[in-house]
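Lab notebook, bench 4. The sequencing result for the construct came back, and we need a structural model before the next group meeting so we can plan mutations. Quick request posted to the team channel:

Model the 3D structure of this chain.
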Amino acid sequence: MRNYNKGFTLLELIISITLIGLIVVILAGAMRVSSRSIASGEKKIEYLDRMRATINFIDSQIQSQIPLTYEEDGENKYYFKGERELLQFSTNYSIWGGEKGYVIATYWVQTNSNGKQELYVSETIVGTNFKRETKLTEEMDTIYFEYFYKDPTEEQGTWVDNWDDETSIPEKILFHFVNNNIDSAVVIPVRVIYSTEKGIVE
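Done. Here's the predicted structure in token form:
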């Protein structure tokens, strides 16, 4: 009996190299998918953290709202303004300084070059021209505000996107953050209810 040690034939080498190449391609694809999943997960976590911080800031400022007035054309007017894409009010809670004096907080929606919307906020210290502003959210499809209006003669109230009652402020404010057809709506109740007709702060 004779033993012959034969090497790989050319066909076998080609098949082996092809299989190794396929394995490398599959592994590289799996690593890319895994990397994208991790990046997507981190981006989603960052988005949720930013939204949570944004809602906390908004809630703190609205809950600390104080109905201050300013004089214009000989009349006292309230700082509160409520529109579909703009919200302004006076509060004793500052995003930058905490509970250190009174500021005028203004939230507004701005459309960027991509047609997406972003939420901004600015603060002006009462009695000064000192102003700071920052962007609160990344781009979304739509951002807008609604205000809960309840007539004293009615049992049920309605949501309006423009607050034109100059004698009071709404009981609740609704923030809409719409992205990918999902409306992440947040209702923030207003603790301080003021009415110039009743002349009381509750």
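Residues 195-202 have pLDDT under 50 and may be disordered.
Will bring this to the meeting.
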